[in-house]
């Protein structure tokens, strides 16, 4: 909100209106206050107004209650991250005020519920602009009845709408859509709360704000979080069977698939455990159509034996891993990228598999489709590494052309003369399976197995065949590597530091690049979406820089290189590859990245 | 990114799999012979009870005029679980204990296939115990045959979950001390809708049970005693008339729909009774899921898949 372009003094002595290009609003309360709903409405409104938006939320790992925040950054220009510092803090309680006032930028606005926030700290009174509104009691006044202060989130949305001159009819429509279909009185109450908030005169507010017009987008914007995008992506990809076991933060995806798949004639099974989930998905994959399973944290560990079978039997499968803080039960509602190693290497024996990592919500949609395509084409399990941050964050992106994007992956049951699934003479080296139900005229039927096997899938102890089959399973992924796009360099192609990221950290890394370049430093970045196998040609990019610095959310590890830098050092044997890591369960701040990368920049 | 980096592509089938073959009509198809059904020669020890189960599986396919491609043979790990290699049918040799979960994935996505799952006592009741309970309670349509030899054979004589107390093994040299599982009671308690018991020494009875299991619409479980001549010889002599034992059938007046009567009948399993202990109609998970789908589809108004997804997306704008 720093770049107020112009201010105008409206008649009647009301606050001035400042034109702004972006704003970061942090809402802090408890998990049952419905603060995600406020954030959700703001994000959706931004999408409908062709603005860019990114959100960030924390949820307590407790069963019910506990402090929770939702931060939303809305901009008329490019929004890469959810923002280091907030312009406005809306806080419902004394503890939310004290805990989060530090996230405000100097001169920022504290909008607080004066029914609960009773003590304004003198040392903060000068630093921030405090504005109190008795949110709880005004909400009760507005709707009356026995609902107590339920609805104060929508009242607050009204306050924010007034403060930022947001489009009132659009918000009313969103509220009506959200609560429509339920009891009519619920929509009525919600709108009453909203209007009460909107018409509430905020005493002491110096300015209100208006977003500059956003650039016209070619397509409609669609607004969702990463878990939704992954789930819908799988549907678009043609997946019609899934199996899973509930675990945070993966559960949203299985809930979505369980709810949606029947409409498409598909099935999602909630299984007795994680192992059954991957086993059942593999059964369905073998039965003819790439299936999906997924999990988080410990659930991924449980799946590794069956994953090894999928590698050995060369069975296509998509495994979604929504990473959280580990090891063990770890930090279930926090963010970490520490599953990279288990995704790439987890399991006994040599078991090459594919690992891909979406960098934003839009990627989640398209990379779900990509995962299915890779699994099918290369007969291999594909792991999609998402994380808690991307799973729960809401973004707006161009609406996909679904008619073009949706695929049909129905099994082919055409009879065949003869068939060997593990044929070593196939020129491209890639296994083809025929689906059960397929007639084989030779009368020789294939077996899929976890034992080392001959070309028909029958067990063998032959050292020669073990070598040949290991090579077959490995070489097909080398073939895939050649097909993968080389990531584009963000910034100049030569310089002092190349930052390398993967997964949900793309926004803060690119923002750090932009800031460093503004300060005159030769810093660029690349973002890896294909982690295993790596695309070919990264070494050519690395050659243009003095330092290759991997930025990731893992512990530095025994040897100081985190997980991705260790992998890259193993691959390129290049000592200029180093890591800056952190594993505190929180997302990277742009400022932290800049501070840590400073060590590799020339002093001036 | 506005499209997947790897596009949709179907690799052409290779070699003879690429040649066009016509599917023979039912009239052109004679029933399969044993020779056409048999694949690899079994690797079991001479005299193993599993030979008899395999021979009667061939017989079942032959007698019921099943087609190769419609039969799926799924197994976990253990001596018994080598089954898929010995049968000319689409087969899957999965990991230890998880064959039922794998087979459920096949059954639930392909109603056109017969799903037969083979397992042993360790695979089914020890490492796979959880899946046994849940596949039974969900009533997933398939036939599950457990060859129970009451010992770990493939790993050479350790105590199994069905080894009787006092059985001397390499892990209980003084004799097993842990109470064994009663598979029939467990299956009934878990909610299996078809529970039968048979033995490898009575081929006619074994085939009869297999046929009844196959015809049952639901999860059909057969405990088949199958002697391990190497590590637990003579285990089932007391149920073999040729060895001086008694082959006692489930009484003709037993009500197979009476869960409690079935449970009581399973009290003594050494040697115990043989036949169908419990059989009751209950909707399969396959049918329940199909109903959920039919209900959901009836509300979609015949839209194409992409149009359905578009409707969801329209709500996310």
Compact overview of the structure:
Chain A is an alpha/beta fold. Chain A is built from 20 helices and 23 strands.
Describe this structure in words.
In chain A, a hairpin with a 7-residue loop joins strand 1 and strand 2. Chain A has 604 residues and is α/β, with parallel strands linked by helices. Chain A contains 20 helices and 23 strands. Chain A folds into four domains: 7-217, Pyruvate-ferredoxin oxidoreductase, PFOR, domain III (Pyruvate-ferredoxin Oxidoreductase, domain 3, 3-Layer(aba) Sandwich); 222-405, Rossmann fold (3-Layer(aba) Sandwich); 412-483, no CATH class; 495-600, Rossmann fold, CATH 3.40.50. In chain A, helix 1 (35-48) packs parallel to helix 5. Chain B has a single domain, classed as Thiamin diphosphate (ThDP)-binding fold, Pyr/PP domains (Rossmann fold), CATH 3.40.50. In chain B, 31% of the residues lie in helices and 14% in strands. Chain B has ten helices and eight strands. In chain B, strands 2-1-3-4-6-5-8-7 form an eight-stranded mixed sheet, sandwiched between helices. In chain B, helix 8 links the parallel strand 7 (248-249) and strand 8. The relative contact order of chain B is 0.11. At the A-B interface, helix 1, strand 10, helix 8, helix 10 and helix 11 of A face strand 2, helix 3, helix 5, helix 9 and helix 10 of B.
Mean pLDDT of chain A: 92
Helix content of chain A: 25-40%
Q: Indicate the CATH topology of chain B.
A: Rossmann fold
Tally of separate helices of chain B: 10
CATH homologous superfamily label of the largest domain in chain A: Pyruvate-ferredoxin oxidoreductase, PFOR, domain III
CATH superfamily annotation of chain B: Thiamin diphosphate (ThDP)-binding fold, Pyr/PP domains
Give the integer mean of the pLDDT values of chain B. 96
Largest sheet of chain A: 6 strands, mixed
Give the overall form of chain B: globular
SSE string of chain B, helix = H, strand = E?
A: HHEEHEHHEHEHEEHEHH
Number of beta strands of chain A: 23
Q: What amount of the residues of chain B lies in strands?
A: 5-15%
CATH top level of chain B?
Alpha Beta
Structural class of the helix and strand makeup of chain A? alpha/beta
Q: What is the terminal separation of chain B in angstroms?
A: 19 Å
**Number of discrete domains of chain B:** 1
Query: Do you know the CATH architecture of chain B?
Result: 3-Layer(aba) Sandwich
The chain pair with the largest interface is:
A-B, 107 and 79 residues
Number of helices of chain A: 20
Low-confidence stretches of chain A: 2-12
Q: Give the overall shape of chain A, derived from the CA principal axes.
A: globular
């Amino acid at each position: 909100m720093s770049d107020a372009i112009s201010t105008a003094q409206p008649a009647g002595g009301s606050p001035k209106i400042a034109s702004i290009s972006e704003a970061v609003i942090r809402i802090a309360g408890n998990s049952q206050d419905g603060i995600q709903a406020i954030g959700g409405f703001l994000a959706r409104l931004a999408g409908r107004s062709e603005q860019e938006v990114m959100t960030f939320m924390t949820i307590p790992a407790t069963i019910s209650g506990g402090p929770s925040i939702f931060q939303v950054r809305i901009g008329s220009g490019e929004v890469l991250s959810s923002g280091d510092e907030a312009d406005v803090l809306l806080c419902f309680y004394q503890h939310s005020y004290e805990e989060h006032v530090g996230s405000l930028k100097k001169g920022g606005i504290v909008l607080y519920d004066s029914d609960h926030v009773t003590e304004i700290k003198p040392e903060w009174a000068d630093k921030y602009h405090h504005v109190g509104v008795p949110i709880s009691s005004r909400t009760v006044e507005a709707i009356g009845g026995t609902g107590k202060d339920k609805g104060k989130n929508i009242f607050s949305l009204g306050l924010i709408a007034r403060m930022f001159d947001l489009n009132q009819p659009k918000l009313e429509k969103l509220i009506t859509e959200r609560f429509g279909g339920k009891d009519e009185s619920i929509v009525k109450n919600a709108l009453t709360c909203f209007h009460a908030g909107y018409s509430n005169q905020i005493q002491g507010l110096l300015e209100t704000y208006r977003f500059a017009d956003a650039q016209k987008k070619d397509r409609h914007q669609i607004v969702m979080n990463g878990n939704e995008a992954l789930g819908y992506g799988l549907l678009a990809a043609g997946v019609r069977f899934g199996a899973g076991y509930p675990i945070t933060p993966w559960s949203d995806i299985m809930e979505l698939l369980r709810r949606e798949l029947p409409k498409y004639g598909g099935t999602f099974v909630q299984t007795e455990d994680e192992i059954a989930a991957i086993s059942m998905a593999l059964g369905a994959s073998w039965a003819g159509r790439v299936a999906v399973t997924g999990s988080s944290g410990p659930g991924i560990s449980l799946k590794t034996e069956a994953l090894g079978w999928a590698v050995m039997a060369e069975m296509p499968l998509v495994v979604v891993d929504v990473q959280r803080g580990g090891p063990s039960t770890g930090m279930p509602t926090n963010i970490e990228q520490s599953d990279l190693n288990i995704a790439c290497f987890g399991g006994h024996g040599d078991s090459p598999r594919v690992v891909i990592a979406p960098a934003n919500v839009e990627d989640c949609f398209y990379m779900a489709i990509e995962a299915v395509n890779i699994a099918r084409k290369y007969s291999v399990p594909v792991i999609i590494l998402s994380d808690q941050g991307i799973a729960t964050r809401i973004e707006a992106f161009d609406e996909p052309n679904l008619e073009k994007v949706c695929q049909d992956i129905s099994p082919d049951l055409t009879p065949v003369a003869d068939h060997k699934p593990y044929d070593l003479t196939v020129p491209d080296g890639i296994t083809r399976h025929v689906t059960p139900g397929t007639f084989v005229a030779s009368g020789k039927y294939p077996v899929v197995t976890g034992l080392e096997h001959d070309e028909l899938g029958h067990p063998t102890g032959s050292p020669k065949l073990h070598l040949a089959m290991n090579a077959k399973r490995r070489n097909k992924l080398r073939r895939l590597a050649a097909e993968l796009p080389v990531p584009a360099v963000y910034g100049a192609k030569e310089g002092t530091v190349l930052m390398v990221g993967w997964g949900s950290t793309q926004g803060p890394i690119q923002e750090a690049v932009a800031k460093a370049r503004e300060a005159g430093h030769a810093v660029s970045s690349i973002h890896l979406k294909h982690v295993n196998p790596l695309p070919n040609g990264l070494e050519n990019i690395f050659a243009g820089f003095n330092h290759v610095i991997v930025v990731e959310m893992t512990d530095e590890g025994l040897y100081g290189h985190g997980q991705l830098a260790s992998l890259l050092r193993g691959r390129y044997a290049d000592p200029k590859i180093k890591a800056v890591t952190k594993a505190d369960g929180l997302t990277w701040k742009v400022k932290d990245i800049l501070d840590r990368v400073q060590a590799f920049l020339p002093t001036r | 990114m506005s499209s997947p980096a790897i596009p949709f592509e179907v690799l052409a089938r290779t070699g003879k799999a690429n040649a066009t073959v016509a599917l023979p009509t039912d009239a052109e198809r004679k029933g399969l012979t044993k020779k056409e059904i048999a694949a690899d020669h079994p690797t079991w020890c001479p005299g193993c009870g599993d030979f008899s189960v395999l021979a009667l599986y061939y017989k079942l396919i032959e007698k019921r005029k099943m087609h190769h491609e419609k039969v799926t043979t799924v197994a976990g790990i253990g001596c018994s679980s080598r089954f898929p290699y010995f049968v000319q049918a689409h087969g899957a040799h999965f990991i230890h204990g998880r064959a039922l979960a794998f087979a459920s994935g096949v059954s639930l996505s392909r109603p056109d296939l017969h799903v037969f799952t083979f397992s042993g006592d360790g695979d089914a009741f020890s490492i796979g115990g959880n899946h046994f309970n849940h596949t039974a309670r969900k009533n997933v349509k398939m036939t599950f045959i457990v060859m129970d030899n009451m010992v770990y054979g493939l790993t050479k004589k350790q105590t199994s979950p069905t080894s009787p107390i006092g059985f001397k093994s390499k892990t209980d040299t003084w004799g097993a001390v842990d109470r064994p599982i009663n598979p029939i009671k467990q299956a009934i308690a878990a909610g299996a809708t078809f529970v039968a018991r048979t033995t490898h020494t009575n081929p006619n009875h074994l085939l009869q049970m297999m046929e009844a299991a196959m015809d049952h619409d639901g999860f059909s479980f057969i405990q088949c005693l199958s002697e391990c001549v190497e590590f637990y010889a003579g285990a089932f002599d007391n149920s073999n008339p040729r060895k001086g034992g008694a082959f006692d059938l489930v009484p003709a007046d037993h009500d197979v729909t009476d869960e409690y009567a079935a449970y009581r009948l399973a009290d003594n399993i050494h040697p115990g009774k043989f036949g169908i202990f419990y059989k009751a109609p209950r909707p399969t998970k396959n049918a329940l899921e199909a109903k959920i789908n039919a209900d959901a589809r009836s509300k979609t108004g015949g839209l194409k898949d992409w149009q359905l997804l578009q409707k969801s997306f329209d709500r996310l704008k």
